[in-house]
Structure formats: structure tokens, C-alpha cells
Structure prediction request, 563 residues.
Amino acid sequence: MQFGIFEFLRLVGALGFFIYGMKVMSEGIQKAAGGSLRRIIRAMTKNRYFGVVTGFLVTALVQSSSATTVMTVSFVNAGLLSLTESVGVLMGANVGTTITAWLISLLGFKVKVATFSLPVIAIALPLLFARPKKWRSWGEFLIGFALLFMGLDALKDAVPDLRQNPEVLSFLATYADMGLLSTWLFILVGTVLTVVVQSSSAAMALTITMCYQGWIPFDVAAPMVLGENIGTTITAQMAALVGNVHAKRAATIHTIFNVLGVAWMILAMPLFLKAIAALMVIEGLGDPFTTATSIPFGLAYFHTAFNLANVLLLIWFVPILVRIAERIVKPHGEEDEDFRLEYIATGLMGTPELSTLEARKELAKFGEITARMSGFIEQLLNADDPKRQRKMLKKVRKYEEITDRLEVEIAAYLAKVSQGDLSEGLSQRIRGMLSITNDLERIGDIFYQMSLAIERKNEEQHWFSPSQRQNLMELFSLVDEAFVVMNDNLVIDSPSGAELAKAMRAEEAINHKRDELRSAHLASIERGDYNVRGGMVYNDLFSSAERVGDHIINVSEALVDRD
Prediction:
């Protein structure tokens, strides 16, 4: 047959069929067991070795290293995983993705799985209409599994047969006997292929299929597999584009890990391929260099051996990889460095006393983050440039999300601590810390609501008078002083009555200023000095600032009460 545009479209369509099936299967298993997967990742990343196992298991389950890497990068971005903890998961994802090659080798070519695909869909169909959401998700998983192998079957038929297309061999043969240059070329081909199809599993399936059909020889397909390992890192890089510096560093480590692995494997590949061929001959699987039916197993062996060897070699250098990533990816701002749990994100639980000390350090950092939001609101009030206003609104929104996450994580940690055998004093201290966590989160909510009020004011083109702006700045200055006292108390081992009295004076100053502004505001409304809508926003802002002061004093009171 002639391989023309129609045949090319059939090939692309079959590849799309395969990718779509894998996507449906991956999304189905993530919906059905998504919460469990997240709990597994959080519980099994206590050290780099557990992380590797975690990455392997999750990737083997969802059949997509991309899903695991994106999930891991997003966890790092959220502060749920530290950078060091993420490295093991990313390494394990590389090993887990080798399962795809084995599935294709064991089922895709030896067994006509596509024959059973329609019955599998028939079984899955009732599940799609089941009331429990989890059942519907399992139905999606089964349909995705069936579609994946139907796509693989279509892919095998769409790839041109070498016997009917000898010109394909002559084209590839031109580049297959160029020694090391040929190896580099086909690594590049594998990389580009994976970037284009956005799936190393799909690229691996296509490589195995082409090799099985005689399109490319075994020793050319192996470098393509190496290239696919590099190409798959683009998914993590894309996920990290919108993340903070820690997410970008995790994606960078993933890339460095794979590139280093390919670099040393280029030198060792002849020995690896010969060893794999010898092992397969001993096992009765045939020589992949000479037998087409042995090629899928040969590539599966090579893919697995390479990724396992790379993990075993580089897992000892995780701290070095982290330092390299930190040198390559520099922070672009203070928020990049500060927004992750530093003391209690590892999942390690010591004694209750030590655990509460770690949580207290996190609360001190939480307090600094909320104080920073006050400065953002002040900048937003004074910003005349729309671009500057949008930037500050985005910052306030981001910080509000961070305060929400911190509240959930710290509260969950303290709940675990409280399950142990606690003294009355320690139990009271934990209750106080939970109260502080709630107050700090409420401060973040109030600042966010203030930013929305300012945004609406700007959109409706209501402007504050110079005196209104000056009054708000004076009130926020008092709020900032209260934050200083609160944060000082958060880092003091045992705040005393003196520190509480200082906090009370700061709170009274805020209340007094609020009362003064409210009286003047009502008088101005009566005189008609400014429009009602602008006056309402002005009233909301100074009232909200006073509510922030209430939560600030609550924090200091809880600190003294528990100590």
C-alpha cells in the first residue's frame, strides 16, 4: 500500500484513539481513588526511598507518569510536599511508567485484547449510570481500558508495513548507521515525539508498534525510548509554569534526573542491549535484534532496566540535585520562598510536646503572612495604575488561598497530636493553637473581602477623597502596629500579662480610631460631602480593619490563656 496523507491521518487518528483511552482510564482511576492516592502520597514520602515506592505505585495505578508528576508538582506548589520529598516520587514515577511497556508486550501483541474490549465496555456501561459516584468512576476506568487497547490495535494496523513500504526502511537506514550521531538523532526523535503527543506511554506504544512492524530496528528504538524519558519532563515543566519557585525546582529536578540518566546510558547502552538480548534468549523469548516478536519484550526490558538503574544510581545524590535546582531556579519574590509548611509538612510525628513546638513555629510564620496582607491592601488603596491594581488584587487572592491551606494543614496536624495521651495543660495549649489558626484564617478572609470592595469601587469609578485615603492609612498604620505586637507574642516562649497589655493598648487604639472615623463619616454623609456608594465602601473598609484588630487581639489572648 502507498503511505499517503490518508494513511498518515489514520496513523494520527489511531494514536489519538490510544491517547484518549489512556486519558479516560487515568481520569477514571483518579476519580475513583483520587483521595486515596493523595493520602498515599502524603503518608509514604517520609524519606526518598518511600517516595520512590509511592511514585511507582501511583503511576502504575493511573498508567500515566504525567499525572503523577503534575500531581507531585502541584503538591510542592501547595506546600504539601517538600522539595526533597518530591524527588523520590518523581523518580518512582519514571519506574512506574515502564508498566505500560509490559502491558503492551504481555497483552497488546500476544493476546488480542481488542477482542475483549467491547465486552468490557458492556460491563462498564451499567456502572456509568449507577448512583454512587465511585461506581461511575470505575465504569470510566473500564471503558478507558477498553479504548486504550482498541486504540493500540488500530495503531498496529495504521503503522505502515515495511514489506509493503520498503522506502521507509531506506529512509531510516540512512540515519541508523551513523554511530553515536545516530543515537543522538533518535534520542531527539523520541523527545520530540513525546512532546508532541504529550504522553511518554503513548510514545512508547508507538515506538514498540513501529519496531514490531519492522519500521525501525531494536537498537534504534532503544535511543528513542531514552528520548521519551526526556520528553515526558515537559509535562512537569508546563505544570510548574504557573507554580511558585518550589514547583519550578521540582520540575527542574525531574528534568535533570532524566537528562543525567540518558547521558550515562548513551555510554552503557551497547552493553545493556547485549545483556538484555542474552537474558531473553536464555528465557526463551528470542533475540530482539533478529526476531520481530521479541522486540516488545526487549524494549520493555530496556525501559525497565534503564529507569531502575537510574533511580538506584541517582537516589544517593538527592541533596545534590536539590542544591543544583535551587541554584538554577532563583526566587523572584518573597512569596516564592515563604509559602509552604516548613516545620510540620513532613508527616513525621514526634512526642506531643515536640509536635506542638513545631506547630507553634508554623503559627508564627502564619502570622507573618497575614500581616503582609495588610501591606498589600494599603498598596492597593494607593495604586492608581490599573496594572498595579490587578497585580495587588492577584496577590491578595493568592495569600487568601494560602491562609486557607495553612488553616487546614495546621488544624489537621494538631488533631493528630491531640489523639495521643495529653496532659491537661498540653490539651489546653492545643485548643488555644486551634483558636489562633482560625483567627489568622479569618484575617485572611477579611483582607480578601476588602480587596473585592476596593475592586468594585474602582470598576464603578468611585474615588476616595484625600482625607478619606489619609484616614484609612492612619487606621492601617495602627493595624500594622497591632500585627507587630501579635507576631512578637507568637515567637515568645511564654507571653505574659505585660505582652497582653501591650496588645490590648494596640487594640484600643484601633477601636478609638474606628469610632472617630465612623462619627466623621456619618457627619459627612449628612452634609453630602461624597456619594453614598463610595461612602459605603469607605465604611466597609474601616469597619473591616477594626474586625481585623479583633482577631489580632484574640490571638494574643489565646497565647496567654494557653501558657
In short: The mean pLDDT is 77. The CA atoms of residues 55 and 93 lie 4 Å apart.
